[in-house]
Amino acid sequence: MKIIICNMMEQHFEFQVNPNDTILQLKKMFCEKEGSLLENCRLTFGQNQLNDNQTIQQSNLKNGDIVYYSMNLGF
């Protein structure tokens, strides 16, 4: 399935994932492609921050969904 991540500059990155992949795996793919630090990566879908330990399926993500990247500043 395809998940799209939109960064803070409104650029879109497409990733092919499996429903059983974790959010952490998705973050790693995104950070490697964009050159961001994994520890600063925060992904949200709707109004919810996505949990690293949950799978794509557990996070209720569907094919073609757009997830938003922001920097986790630790506040």
Mean pLDDT: 94
Quickly give the structural class: alpha+beta
CATH topology: Ubiquitin-like (UB roll)
So, the CATH homologous superfamily? Phosphatidylinositol 3-kinase Catalytic Subunit, Chain A, domain 1
- State the strand order across the main sheet: 2-1-5-3-4
SSE order, one letter for each helix or strand: EEHEEE
Give start-end ranges of low-pLDDT stretches.
none
Distance between the amino and carboxyl termini: 33 Å
How many strands appear in the DSSP assignment?
A: 5
Helix content: 10-25%
Short summary of the structure?
This is Ubiquitin-like domain-containing protein. This protein has 75 residues and is an alpha+beta fold.
Describe the structure.
With 75 residues, the protein is of the alpha+beta class. It has one domain: Phosphatidylinositol 3-kinase Catalytic Subunit, Chain A, domain 1 (Ubiquitin-like (UB roll)). It contains one helix and five strands. It has one helix at residues 23-34; strands at residues 2-6, 12-16, 41-45, 48-49, 66-71. The protein has a five-stranded mixed sheet with strand order 2-1-5-3-4, with helices on one face. The termini are far apart. The model has no long low-confidence stretch (mean pLDDT 94). Residues 1-68 form the Ubiquitin-like domain.
Features:
75 residues; alpha+beta; Ubiquitin-like (UB roll); 5 strands; Ubiquitin-like domain-containing protein; Ubiquitin-like_dom
Reconstruct the topology from this structure:
Elements lengths: L1 E5 L5 E5 L6 H12 L6 E5 L2 E2 L16 E6 L4
Parallel strand pairs: 1-5
Antiparallel strand pairs: 1-2, 3-4, 3-5
